[in-house]
Specification:
512 residues; 18 helices; 0% strand; disordered N terminus
């Protein structure tokens, strides 16, 4: 009997030990999974950087001299001659969403969208006694889509055919004639005149003559800017190749295929290459989820405007403009302003570009970097929108330095800032239908000051806090003033023909 009792005690003790061991194994496995999820994103980013550096170093390696391999140091002048390297890499948010902690933040924003829907249903039921979701502002903003469609077809057909065949005509004659400069100037002026008319005046005439609503205006104007940048990149990248490669006697010059140019017009980059890294297949589930997120962002923006912006701005149009009212409205506009900024970033730079990248199997998805971690505005400008930054850097900043023989770097940087500020203000002015140079002033003045004062030497986390504070206040100012100008234009419409000064003067300054 004692022996039986002892054996049962030992058996129970062994079972407890086995249960404890299994629990520790399960816990260790969970900890392992969490650590791997957190390390995966950082490791992938480090590997991308190492791959980029290895490609650049490979181009710098010199032939062996006396049995030794030498390489050039990556000097500033050498980096200026480098071109953009495309490689297969996913978007940063796609990597971060693999981490459960980051994915929870995304779930929080989805929950806020559902709360907006619930609050709208509740308010409509209390006020009208029925459950209804009316998206009248959304339907108004995207009105006249038929006009937008045929206008886009005209601009697309022109951008596809005219620059391409003009380049082929010039290239076929360039190596045959002796007056190369005269030929290039005449063909360049002819193409510039057509660009000015079709991609310059035509979209402006369309949005003004047909009185398109805001979202439809933005579609036309942004596509106008995109086609101009795409066609310029195609000509800028192809022309030097045609000039350098003299064809053999009896042979015609080699030109890019029309299919490669057509692919470039749709792929999510503004830098032309004859080929890009491609994925092996299309992930249709990813496409469906991305389309759903884009639609969700549209409704998200609608709720932000209706529930957060309109109640703040609209009452102020009936009251005199005072400093107190302005300051209060700016701070009340910070929350919807920063939400709209994050929404535009996520909807366009992540969802929209990744959608086209997936459909076209475009493998290089680095459309942005971790701009939210920036401790300097210099880094913020580089990482917020990599697609546009690359175009401005290679065709604005570097070409300016090439023309000036690399002597005026500050002037090159300032010129890029001014051009970017003018284009941003042009898009907003044409999209909203009025001139109120808030974006230009913030971009060209404060943006330049912050770029030189908060540069890459600032590494402290304090400067990341300062950067976010500046973004908060800047978005509040823009939402406040643009909304006030919109309602002032509605309450006090212009009658008859106004002078140029009156057209350029904000209506909110005089409307009461």
């Amino acid at each position: 009997m004692p022996l039986l009792l002892f054996s049962s005690t030992v058996w129970a003790h062994n079972n407890v030990q086995e249960d404890d061991q299994r629990q520790w194994q399960n816990k260790a496995q969970k900890v392992k999974v969490k650590i791997l999820e957190q390390v995966q994103g950082q490791l992938s980013h480090l590997l991308d950087e190492a791959l980029t550096e290895s490609v650049q170093l490979f181009t710098q390696i010199q032939p062996p001299v006396n049995g030794k391999v030498t390489k050039n140091l990556p000097s500033r002048s050498h980096r200026m001659n480098d071109s953009k390297v495309f490689m297969a890499r996913p978007s940063l948010l796609d990597e971060l969403f693999e981490i459960s902690h980051i994915r929870t933040i995304y779930h929080m924003f989805v929950a806020v969208l559902l709360v907006f829907c619930l609050s709208t249903l509740t308010v409509d039921y209390i006020d009208q006694g029925r459950l209804v979701l009316e998206f009248d502002l959304l339907w108004f903003a995207f009105g006249k889509l038929g006009t937008v469609t045929w206008a886009w077809v005209v601009m697309f057909a022109y951008t596809l055919l005219v620059p391409y065949y003009t380049l082929r005509l010039w290239g076929s004659l360039y190596h045959r004639v002796s007056y190369k400069i005269g030929l290039s100037l005449s063909m360049g002026l002819m193409l510039s005149a057509m660009q000015t008319y079709v991609l310059g005046q035509f979209p402006i005439y369309l949005v003004v003559q047909y009185q398109l609503p805001p979202a439809s205006r933005f579609i036309v104007i942004l596509e106008q800017i995109r086609f101009l940048m795409k066609s310029y990149s195609f000509i800028r990248e192809t022309t030097p190749v045609v000039m350098k490669n003299t064809p053999k006697e009896g042979l015609s010059p080699t030109f890019p295929t029309l299919s490669s140019y057509l692919y470039f017009l749709f792929c999510p980059t503004l830098i032309y290459r004859e080929s890009y890294p491609r994925n092996s297949h299309i992930r249709w589930r990813y496409v469906g989820v991305t389309v759903g997120m884009i639609l969700g962002c549209l409704f998200y923006g609608y709720f932000i405007l209706v529930r957060l912006c309109v109640p703040i701005i609209r009452p102020e149009t009936n009251q005199p403009f005072t400093k107190r009212a302005f300051v209060l409205t700016v701070f009340n506009s910070i929350l919807p302003g920063i939400m709209l900024l994050l929404l535009c970033f996520f909807a366009f730079l992540h969802c929209w570009l990744n959608l086209f990248g997936e459909l076209l199997r475009f493998a290089d998805r680095m459309f942005y970097e971790d701009w939210w971690n920036s401790t300097s505005f210099t880094n913020y400008y580089r990482t917020w929108n990599v697609v546009v930054h690359d175009w401005l850097y290679y065709y604005g900043y570097r070409d300016f330095l090439w023309l000036s023989k690399r002597r005026f770097r500050t002037a090159a940087m300032l010129s890029v800032f001014i051009v970017s500020a003018v284009v941003h203000e042009y898009a907003l002015s044409m999209g909203f239908g009025f001139f109120c140079p808030i974006m230009f002033f913030l971009f060209a003045f404060f943006g330049v000051v912050f770029n030189f004062t908060m540069n890459d030497k600032r590494k402290s986390p304090v400067f990341n806090v300062i950067m976010w504070m500046c973004l908060f206040i800047g978005q509040g100012v823009q939402v406040c003033l643009y909304c006030q100008e919109w309602y002032a234009k509605t309450r006090c419409p212009r009658t008859g023909k106004d002078s140029l000064l009156e057209l350029l003067t904000p209506r909110s300054w005089s409307c009461r």
